[in-house]
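User: Can you predict the 3D structure for this chain?
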Amino acid sequence: MGEPERPLDALNNSRGKRVIIELKNNKQFIGKLKAFDIHINTVLEDAEERVNGEVTRKVGLAFIRGDAIVLISPA
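Assistant: Here is the predicted structure, written as structure tokens:
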């Protein structure tokens, strides 16, 4: 696999892997990236919510609306 050519290619390479999603409200969700669409709406499996670096709750399956996301990074 070479370098991704487009941003969605990079995101697609992370499918099935753990990612960190940071939201506009400074919360983070960490989980396995299951799916996403062109609006960057995402679905995470085995997700946990973190606030100030501490796990506040285990969510399980989570749908995160794309317009709330600031960044997505490999965990």
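The longest helix spans residues 7-13. The mean pLDDT is 93.
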